[in-house]
Amino acid sequence: MAPLMAAAPPSTAAARAQAAARTNVRSPAGRPAGVGLARAGVAAARGRPAGVFTTSLAAAVALAAAARRRQSHAQRPRALRAAVALRASKAATTALQSETVPEEEDLRAIFAEASGGKDITTFDEAIRLEGVDGVLEEGAVSLKELQLLWGDESVALGFEAWSKWYVQVLALYDEFLWKDAVAPPSDLLADLDEDDEEDEDYEDEDLLVDAPSRYQDISKLLKQREQAQAEERGQLPAASTPALAAPATTEEGRENFEITRLFREGCDDQNMLSFEALLEISDIKAMLVQEEVTKTELKEMWAELPSKDGNIDVLTFKDLMGKVDDLFEYEEEELEEELDLAPAPLEEIAEVGAEAEVAPKLRAPAIVKSELQAMIQNLEEVETRPCGLDGRPETDTAITKLTDELEQIWRDKLEDVADFDETELVGDWELVYSTSAKYRRWQSVLNSDKYIKGGIVDALVQTFSIEPSTGAKEYDMEEVFLLEGQEQGMRSEGSWSVGLQSNVVTGDDDLVLKIGLNGVEYDNQEEEIEQAEKKLLSSQMIRTFCYSFIAYVDDDVRVMRTGLSGNSVFIYQRMQDKDD
């Protein structure tokens, strides 16, 4: 089949990215009371010093969607990309010490959009800005962190206070992009960096031995030489194997910043935690919901802890979390004993290449899909709304881990995404689960303007087809809502296309599915069909939904990403004909 054409970015994203490209480096004058402490709090929660922020891409990421539409990266020669990445890394190090702020002209335009022309804007209005909404969608920052930076979310902010909050949000996103950026090959970095290293002067006596050997214990050097000589003879010293010769690793458990973050979810003003508050901590609550641990087990562990008036401090909490995590290690050991599992041969768990490189062996997609479907079914039993609308970030991680694995399997099988057969999309698909924060915020795709007021989503169905005579790619979708026991629907039709686009986070090409809707109709309470206003088609939720990336597709399951990484996914199941 003909290679796929590169997808053109939406005009709104391109226009906003160009408008946001005008930046000016300067130190912001003052900040509202409490913002400094809030930044320190976010920094501490992320395990790094306060003040370490960079907004070198700040203006360019006013739209999170704009970042996913950069195409020039993949078109550069590999060596040039590596050199550019190296220069960017050095520039970013310097930029960490300063802040970049978009031009006031651009900030005022964005503020006017958020506030609707008023002199102040609320927290709810601010997070619905396309740029901020995209940052949340990418998983670069959480809603709690945005609230922490804002302060009292019930208080509306004027332009000056809002602009400083907005710049800090851009800084967090820029840091997120740099953290996940694709690094150039280490050997190329070494070649490019050679000129920057200063040669050390050695005396003649120093040159009699290897310079790197200095300050090392002589017994270690002798042992290293003996091992080197033994390896040259094709042997290893007695009682030594490659595994034994490797340095031992120790399990340190959870990082301190993670322990602190969890502890803060439930501790009181005296930095003490009660058992009742423990049960409400996100990780513990998720384990209880998924029946990975019971309340009785937690009570037994709690009774053994040193406490004051029945409460524990953060150090004791760290010990408790260690005991909780140990439960899973014991379960794995017991399962192995019960099944009498022997260590699997290397060829069963890894693939060895021609040059002896070892890569994890991919599992069969049927196994991964089975685990994913079972997990979704378990979540549906405890969640009150369908399609993942009642889901939580704490339980999303397990879902996205499996969808990431499916994408890896699919890409490995496809080899070149440009060879994708578009006809695999043809058919009827029902949405079964989504981890999209934006979808959960709006609680619908088509009903964001509440044409069906009070309606609760019951199902979402898509249909992709190709007209045989013209080859036109036709699209239909319907969302079904329940309102006072009655079903009401919203429907839309249009066209679809698939194209190639560079992913600036992974460095790979993505397959982008673009859906163009012509209009939306809905059922009113009088059981009549009405047309929604055209402006609905430009809503944030519809634009996100209609511009997504194919992560996996087969005869039964389809997974779509709405971001550069796999944090936000929509999972569909193919609907079978009644005759099948």
The strand order across the widest sheet is: 5-6-7-8-9-11-12-13
The class by helix and strand makeup works out as alpha+beta
Number of domains: 3
Helix content: 40-55%
Mean pLDDT: 72
Q: Bin the strand percentage.
A: 15-25%
The total strand number stands at: 13
C-alpha end-to-end distance: 29 Å
Envelope shape:
globular
Rg, please?
Answer: 28 Å
Largest sheet: 8 strands, antiparallel, barrel
Number of helices: 23
Low-pLDDT stretches are 5-99, 182-200, 202-218, 236-251
Explain how this protein is built.
By secondary structure, the chain is an alpha+beta fold. Helix content is 42%, strand content 16%. The strands form 3 sheets. Strands 5-6-7-8-9-11-12-13 form an 8-stranded antiparallel barrel. It has a two-stranded antiparallel ribbon with strand order 1-2. Helix 14 (256-266) crosses helix 18 (314-339) and helix 20 (365-382) packs antiparallel against helix 21 (393-414). The protein is globular and about 75 Å long. The relative contact order is 0.09. The model is unreliable at 5-99, 182-200, 202-218 and 236-251 (pLDDT under 50).
